Amino acid sequence: MMRIWLWPVLIGVLSMLGLIAGLVSEGAGDWLSWLALAAPVAIGLHGLSRSGARPLARGGNLTHAGPRRAGRS
Amino acid sequence: MQAVNLRRWGWVHKWSSLVSTLFILMLCLTGLPLIFSHEIDHLTGNEIEAPAMPEGTPRAAVDRVAAEAVKAYPGLVPLYFFAEEDAPDVWYVKLDTRVDTDESESTLILSDARTAEVLGAPNFDEGFMSVMYRLHVDLYAGLAGKLFLGFMGLLLMVAIVSGVVLYAPFMRKLRFGEVRQERTPRTRWLDLHNLLGIVTLVWALAVGFTGVINTWADLIFQAWQAEQVAALQAGETRVLLATDASDAPAADGSLQTAVDRVLAAAPDMAVSMIAYPGTLRATPEHVAVILRGDTPLTSRLTQALLVDPANGEVLEAGARPWYVTALQLSEPLHFGDYGGLPLKILWGLLDILTIVVLGSGLYLWIKRGTTEVRS
After folding, report:
1. Beta bridge partners of B314
2. B91, B143, B238, B362 — which has fewest CB within 10 A?
3. Which InterPro entries match (chain B) (predicted)?
4. Under an 8 A CB cutoff, do B168 and A16 touch?
5. pLDDT tens digit string along B98-149?
6. In which domain, by residue range, is B78 found?
7. What is the DSSP letter of B200?
8. Is this structure's pTM higher than 0.90?
9. Is the ipTM of this complex over 0.85?
10. Of A34, A46, A69, the CB nearest to B343
């Protein structure tokens, strides 16, 4: 349980912090919100680029196997 | 989780997603340029600006601004004056055929706050950004369109929550962020769908739910107006400035004096909006002056004071109800306009990640026949 939810909860808390920080304070709050919200964006983009999958919108060939990487599991 | 429970949540996730996906995809796509509408208007030269004048140039009385606006748009009456924090020399003036229309056909113009001259009308009704706006807000169908999109937003909330429930059983054998490369494309998209869904979770819930609240804006303001009128009729108001107060300009029936009296009653506040009697934000007899504070949070949370232009009495008809507070906090959280350009860029990227979640979800459903047996 802990193993599954640790990262999602961490990212969720960071996102919440980022959404609220910019609202309640200017300057430092803005910086905090940029840094905190950059976390889900960075992890998401990283996952997207590493998957070797092309975004659907580009009409890429979805059945194409994509570059194989060394299995991580 | 028991297999039967899992199947039920899977059913909820499938149907809430299927019904709403195309509309939510449309909202994500049209919302993307809307995040940057200010920048796009600026770049395309669609932005109307007031000419530079020496600092401290006196401002024209709002009555004169209204008179000039009506002269330029015969047949219309003014409903509201809006003041933008970052454009202090400009009044946005909303005009319509009557004060009590649904405002869907209203005209918004910009007036110079110092000379009262009409500067122009932003091109809200034509062009790419207008199409994006109308598709995003009401599908060209007024209140019904708004409420329909709000319902799609609620389905999205259901889809997100049920997706979170399904996340754990799918991740039992996987590490966080793992996207299996060696399996079929469907497996890869499933892993990606789970990963992107879980990282955008809080943002998507916040933007989705505040979007739903924004679709109720008209109803919320109607309820607030009814509440204020009821409070006035019941005499449940607080008088902030009596008619004979000596420390404020005496009422003379003009709008400017009425506004000045409100500002005298509420020091340290700035005018955000002036609503004519009979409009959605005012009461039939009173001008409503909506004030804002000067911190990021209080500039969003406005205070509405009512003033009778004839006798100058300034009233507060009860504190701001919770549902108006909720609406006012929902606007920045939906638009992402409270942290400069970096926040807008993050908003745009999270929007794109959400589009991938929706697209991959649709793909997973189309390819459902090839579901692998999970060990």
Report:
1. B241, B307
2. B238
3. PepSY-ass_TM
4. no
5. 998 888 788 999 999 999 999 998 876 678 998 999 999 999 998 999 999 9
6. 48-121
7. S
8. no
9. no
10. A34
